[in-house]
Design brief:
The chain has about 240 residues and is an alpha+beta fold. About 45% of the residues lie in helices and about 15% in strands.
Length: about 240
């Protein structure tokens, strides 16, 4: 992808934001210029990344304050989850009992069956928008917050992320992906799992688990795990169709 392709993608990001896709604040103003400089220095994997994108990675998570809040709160929640997994008597709330239930159901199964179990389990929660639940346009919930009140697409993905972490998946195998759904013309979020020689997608819109290659209408904007975030870019043919 050349310099002009990058700038075209910048216009696509602006169009996505206007369509309701929430992007990190640090991807505007001076940080966009810095990202452009990073891009011109390095091209991590042209066209070979998630959903066929070119990816640029960064270990700086400060551009993602919602995710940073979740990670901070998970320091406490994880202790509660692990105590519950070790001892049923420690499962003192409905959320903790649910966490133990899905973990018990998935543990010991082949990998694909584990992913289907986790995906289908959390997809049972009803979809609710953040403004209805929290009175704000955007709020990323921890798994306990999600299981108590339900949530939207980011919240499903976050719960699945940490459920798989407790099942033994490495941080490097997982990414929460913020993307544009070109069919519905709205922002969306899914969980990407690197395994079985592929990238498998856990989506709140279906209990089925497919390869990322099946989702031609998903255009990722950014993704993250506990240590790294990625920006995603496309050539002119893909961005022009947004």
């Amino acid at each position: 992808m050349d310099r002009r392709a990058f700038l075209r993608h910048g216009a696509a990001i602006a169009g996505a934001a206007a369509s309701g896709l929430l992007l990190p604040a640090a991807w505007t103003g001076e940080a966009v210029a810095q990202t452009l400089q990073d891009f011109m220095k390095s091209n991590d994997n042209p066209g070979g990344g998630l959903f066929g994108s070119t990816e640029i990675s960064s270990a700086n998570l400060t551009a993602l304050p919602q995710w940073a809040r979740v990670l901070s709160k998970m320091k406490t929640e994880r202790k509660l989850f692990r105590a519950c997994l070790d001892n049923p008597a420690a499962c003192s709330t409905a959320g903790l009992k649910s966490w133990r239930e899905v973990s018990t159901a998935a543990r010991g199964k082949p990998q694909l069956e584990q992913l289907k179990t986790v995906n289908g389990y959390f997809n049972r929660w009803p979809y609710k928008i953040d403004r209805e639940l929290y009175g704000v346009s955007e709020f990323w919930a921890t798994p306990q917050e999600f299981m108590k009140r339900s949530g939207d697409c980011e919240d499903y993905s976050i719960a699945k992320f940490f459920a798989l972490r407790d099942l033994g998946y490495d941080n490097e195998q997982l990414r929460i992906v913020i993307l544009m759904d070109r069919i519905r013309r709205i922002g969306h979020a899914v969980l990407a799992v690197y395994g079985l020689g592929d990238i498998l997608i856990l989506d709140s819109l279906t209990d089925l688990v497919f390869s990322h290659k099946k989702y031609k209408h998903y255009v990722p904007q950014y993704s993250m795990n506990e240590t790294t975030r990625w920006a995603h870019f496309y050539d002119k043919n893909r961005t022009a169709s947004l």
